[in-house]
Specification:
Blueprint lengths: L1 E5 L5 H6 L7 E5 L3 H10 L4 E2 L3 H5 L4 E4 L4 H6 L7 H4 L5 E4 L5 H13 L3 E4 L2 E2 L1 H7 L2 E6 L2 H14 E8 L3 H29 L4 H8 L7 H11 L10 H18 L4 H17 L8 H9 L11 H9 L3
Parallel strand pairs: 1-2, 1-4, 2-3, 4-5, 5-6, 8-9
Antiparallel strand pairs: 7-8
Helix pairs in contact: 9-11, 9-12, 9-13, 9-14, 12-13
This protein binds NADPH dihydro-nicotinamide-adenine-dinucleotide phosphate.
The site of NADPH dihydro-nicotinamide-adenine-dinucleotide phosphate has 26 residues, from helix 4, strand 7 and helix 7.
């Protein structure tokens, strides 16, 4: 099956790697050609396309993985755009964590050309993408999903049909809003405990066998915060976008959402404070700055500081 992949970013590149071998033949396109050149150098059977239209030409399935639905929409038009290359009967699968309204607009444009569309955002992070173990949440027609399932199974372990076009985006946004809530609230709680002189590693040991645990407490804090590693795997800018989409979904449905709206505001603030390249876990640094304490084991705090912290009441 001939497949095209557009967007070789942090998660796009490891997803595309699973399509760079038979039974697939792969064409790739990336805005910065250097990333596409690097990909083709490692996967010599792959063709580097000159434009989105060139990538789509002859492909049964075209996969996009860009920051937001805006960039996907911007790629559709013009002589070099996706619609100029997509053949009638082809399927555009958008793995961007997009917004439902944007996906519905892209689906309508595709339908005018006889091209089917699925929104198919993923979860599982860069590690899940490398292992081919992502969860893929799909919006669109079930029969179209059946046609492209082998492509999704190349990088996904769990493929879930969520509903019509936009349903995958909505589920993804709410999932990531929960990540944001857990991350921020764990940071506030652990900063308070650290300031009270309690070892955050000890607190996490308790929390992680208790009802307050989450992926943030079980994985992100031990591996990235206590270690001060803060690796850059998922940009804060993208999580800010996701929480904003979830807050919009709730507003559009007129369901009560004060916590989602507040979380969207906090992540917008953090994004502006920390910049475009900061990782999402770096919001913890902002909470630490506001709290005047680092979430680290007491051994890493100077002895006199630790003594004064220990004197403070809980
Ligand atoms: P990155 O920022 O690492 O990569 C973005 C990609 O989009 C790059 O290929 C970039 O090209 C391309 N791009 C950016 N702007 C444009 C544009 N205007 N026109 C064309 N191409 C453009 O993002 P990720 O790979 O991390 O994320 C991609 C999507 O996947 C996002 O929606 C994100 O929310 C989602 N996601 C990411 C996860 C992660 O762990 N990273 C996990 C789950 C979902 P260039 O190389 O030229 O900059």
């Amino acid at each position: 099956m001939h497949v095209a992949f557009l967007g070789l970013g942090a998660i796009g590149a490891p997803m595309a790697r699973h399509l760079a071998a038979p039974p697939f033949s792969l064409a790739v396109w990336n805005r910065s050609a250097a990333r596409a050149d690097a990909f083709v150098a490692v996967h010599p059977g792959t063709r580097r396309a000159a434009t989105p239209a060139d990538a789509a030409r002859g492909a049964a399935v075209v996969v996009t993985c860009l920051p937001t639905s805006r960039e996907v929409e911007a790629l559709l038009d013009g002589p070099d755009g996706l619609l100029a290359g997509l053949a009638e009967g082809a399927v555009l699968v958008d793995c961007t964590s997009g917004d439902p309204a944007g996906s519905r607009r892209v689906a309508a444009r595709c339908a005018e050309r006889g091209v089917a569309f699925l929104d198919a955002p993923v979860s599982g992070g860069v590690v899940g993408a490398e292992k081919g173990a992502l969860t893929v949440m799909v919006g669109g027609d079930a029969a179209t999903l059946a046609r492209v399932r082998p492509v999704l199974e190349a990088f996904g372990q769990k493929i879930v049909h969520c509903g019509g076009v936009g349903a995958g985006d909505a589920v993804k946004a709410v999932n990531n809003a929960l990540l944001a809530v857990h991350l921020w609230s764990a940071a506030e709680g652990l900063a308070a405990l650290a300031k009270a002189g309690i070892d955050p590693a000890v607190a996490l040991d308790v929390i992680n066998t208790s009802s307050g645990r989450s992926n943030s407490s079980m994985n992100l804090f031990p591996e990235r915060v206590l270690s001060r590693a803060f690796p850059r795997t998922f940009r804060l800018a993208l999580l800010d976008k996701d929480v904003g989409i979830a807050a919009d979904v709730a507003r559009e449905q007129r369901t009560p959402s004060p916590l989602l709206q507040l979380t969207a505001e906090l992540f917008r603030t953090a994004h502006h404070a920390l910049g475009e390249e900061a990782d999402h876990v770096e919001v913890v640094r902002l909470v630490e700055r506001w709290a005047g304490v680092e979430i680290v084991p007491p051994a890493t705090i100077a002895a006199e500081d630790a003594a004064s912290i220990l004197e403070q009441p809980l």
